[in-house]
Amino acid sequence: MPRTFPFFADGYPGILFHQTDGGLYLNDKQKLSTIFLYGQTVRPIELVAKGNASLTVLVLYPHVIKYLFGINASELTDDCIDLITLSGSTERLFLERLNELTTREEKISLLQDYLEYLLQYRKTKPDHSLEYAVTEILRSGGAVELRLLQKQVFITERTMERRFERHVGVSPKLFARICRFRSSLQLMKSNTSKRLGNIAFEAGYADQPHFVRNFKEFTGLSPIEFLHRFASKPGLTY
Fold it and tell me: Do 17 and 40 reside in the same domain of the chain?
């Protein structure tokens, strides 16, 4: 019996390694490689595992794709790439060892060693202004004033947009909206009895209709439909 794993926008890229009997598919159509690097998820997707499945996900900071792998993050927005193909010969040795390991802890430890190796031979220099901007947007749950943030890091709106597209994969405005959506999900998860208006207010939305529109954009469902579909499933992280 196939198992489905829903993925929604959360502001973070990552690395996913899986071991499945019949393969892992994107929206039950595209077969995915055994280990892949994925970028920002904007549109809702489902991963479908055929047969028994073990998934290990290593979540990365939002701005590190270009820093570690030397490719523009925008190329991976709503997409992924085979990490074996992307890696050099030494890096592939790390990744090929994953199939020999039996516990999730061992797999995560090896992936961390792989990232530490990449840090030693990183593909590009860090952008400290961008790192600060990303951190502030995350910290505020997307509620930070972007114009004020631009002044704090001494860059223009257009320059910030270019840097976000290159390193994060989406514009600052879209990244802030994703972070606000993520905050609303956490509020819904912590207390499903809250009124939608209260959740919208606490997450920083102007009003409830604005919250519902944003929610539908990232999930394809209204907040009520989402709760009916997912809140009762044990162990689901959203």
Answer: yes
